[in-house]
Every structure is written in structure tokens, then in C-alpha cells.
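Side project, low priority. Logging it here so it doesn't get lost.
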Amino acid sequence: MNRRTSHKNNIRWLWSLSLLPWIVALSGAALTSGCGGGAEVPAESEVEMAKQTASLEGAIDPATCISKLLNGDCQSQAAWQTVADNTCAASGQVATPVSLTSPCATGGFKRASFQCCQPSTPCKTSTILGICQTQAQLMTTAANQCMTMGLTLATSSFSNPCPNGTFRRIDFECCPGTPEVCCKTTAGFQVLPATQCPAALQAPMDMCMGEVCCKLATGPVFVPAGQCPAASILPDAECQPAPEVCCQTAAGFQVVPATQCPTTLQVPMDMCVGEVCCKLATGPVFVPAAQCPAASILPDAECQPAPEVCCQTAAGFQVVPA
């Protein structure tokens, strides 16, 4: 090699060194582009990611998924998955399983594609709008609707009030959890986790949230179901107030429950709520029926004032009873 050839080679070597920083910079730019998710994901990776996303149905919201592509050194699938998890976690998202391409001769892969997705909300909201009902009735319906979805009633709110203190609408949320049932216990009907109540003792939810006719020391009365021991529950008919009648008693005509007045002494209701002609010390007069003893009741005609006439008296002409 002559002196001139050696000099040319030295110039080429120095020129190559001068380009090295630019080569490194351009390589790094390509890597950064891949990591930022701006690089195009290969079609085969898109197909694989769709399968991976489908495998997470229920855990993520597919509508929020964003495709990502990472390029880098050769890494195992587990290592790439860790990188993907960390990448998505930085934005509060969940990573799908990675799809790997560009295998390395020594093992591992240089490229990983995946998706970052928002986790799905496990709770479901719903609304019931209809006729006026008590809060207990609406909650019973909502709880039963949650149970059909394998969820439990978590929150509820009422609106569209009715004049009698009831409501037409309930908005509620059903969330995962141990399903609750109405359970027949020795202390009465109670809402318990399904795992704590044998199937044979499970009852409709309205038995826990509504009212039952309960035999108390003071007599049968409607009380919240959870406050009445199972052995004291009576048919609803026994708590219904007995119909009232007008009864002829020794103290006069009085309104009393039908069970307290023999049929032979029951009279038309107007005998109790109207007026009767009553024989008093001052003479016959109309008084409220309840204020006149039965023996003092006279025909209405005896309380009617005599017709009035114009009479010629010693004091002159006057209007007096006939």
C-alpha cells in the first residue's frame, strides 16, 4: 500500500467516525417512536391483540383500549409483559397480554404489541319507574332485580314522590358481593348472606323489607317483618281492623267494631252519626244519637215543632204553635 492509498483510508475512517453519533441518534429515535405507541402495529399483531382483549371480557372496557407497540432489546415474554403492565399502569389502565414478534436467534423477542384499556366497572346502575310504592316495596323489587344478575343491591335513591309519602321511582346500583336473601330465623325474618341461610329457610325478600301481622301481647298488629319472631306471624286478615257498625247499647247508639256487637243489636249507621228525637227532662228534642239512651228515643214526629199559626190573643195577633 502506497502512502496516498493509506491517506485515503484514514480519511474514510475518520468520516465514518464523524457519522456515528448521527447513526446512534437515528436508531434511538426509531426506538422511541415504537415505545410511544405512534408506530404502526403489524396486522398480525392487531389480530392477536383482538383475541387477547376478548379473553379479558368483563374485566376491561373494550371501547377504551389503545394499541401500543414497543421495540427494544431481546426479552422474554414475561419481561415484555412487565414492561407493558408498567406502561399502562402509568395512565391508570390495564395491559392486555402481549403479542410478540421479531424473535431473536438467542431467544426472546425484540417487539411487543398490546393494548392499554380502562378496567370495566363491575357495578350496574338501573331505574324502576312506575306506580306509587313504599320505599320497602321499591327496594324489594330492586334487590330482586340485582339478584337475577348475580349481584347485590348496593345503593339506592328515591324520587317522584306521591302525596301519601310513597314514591314512583328508585335509582339503584347492583354490585358484586355475596348475594343476600331473606331468611326465616328464630328471631324473625332477616336479610342475611345467602351462604348463611339454608335454601329451605329462604323466603321472598318482601318478607324482610315489608310488614307482617304479628301476635303481640297487646294483640295482633302490623310490624316490620324483621321485628316479629317467625312463630308469631299471623295471617294478614287477623290484623285488619274489624268493620265498624252502629250498635244499640244501654248507653245509646254507638259505633263499635262488629265483633263487639251482636247482630240483633246492629242498626243503620245513621242512627249513630245522625240525630234522634230524645225524651229529655225538658221535653223531646233532637240530639246526637250517641247522646240518647235507647229507651229515651222517640219517634221523630214527637220532636217536630207544631205548625205555627197566627192567633188573636188578648195582647193582639201573634204567631204561636197551632
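Brief comment: The domain at 124-238 is CATH 3.30.1490.140 (Dna Ligase; domain 1).
Revisit when time allows.
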